[in-house]
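I hope you will forgive my troubling you with a question about protein structure. I should value your view on which stretches of the chain appear to form regular backbone elements. Here, with my thanks, is the record as I have it:
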Amino acid sequence: MRGMRILAVSLSFAGLVACSTTPPPQVAYDHSVNFSSYKTFDWYADPSEEKSVGGAIVDARWVNDHVKGAVTAELEKKGLRPAGSAPPDFYLDYHTRSGGVAERDQYGVYSWWSGMPTGANYYKEAVLILDVRDTQKKLVWRGSETKVLGTDPEQLDRQIKSAVATLFKNFPPGVAPGS
């Protein structure tokens, strides 16, 4: 009986760990593009798109300011600069989506005789998608990361900066760091 309880607790713990992870960051790009020619950028504005999703903690403008600030800071570390009034070498765009997630262990609801407690965990996840477009505004690079949302503005800011740094870690692709 003791062995069964240890097995049951171990399986429950493994199930919780497996269910509580978010997908790894995703990056894809057009391998025919010469990213080494990219030096300056500007923000792509699609008038038909609602830019960001706010929430109870922060509004859409806060999200916009923090995403753009984090992206600009990360790209400047790599020697890339805002184009200012000159034509840019590439355009940047971002998208955010969020939603509530309810998770339950993989076995579903237990009946009264199982002797094992069951419960649900509710939280909110958000996806940050970063796009790079060429001068014809064709999508040439995209990265996305999903994170469990923080519960205060400072935590959200750290999460945005972390996601941007992770996504741009190897950007521009095919270019040696510092070149």
User: Anything to note?
Assistant: The beta strands are 26-29, 40-43, 81-82, 90-104, 120-133, 139-148. The domain at 2-167 is CATH 3.30.160.670 (Double Stranded RNA Binding Domain).
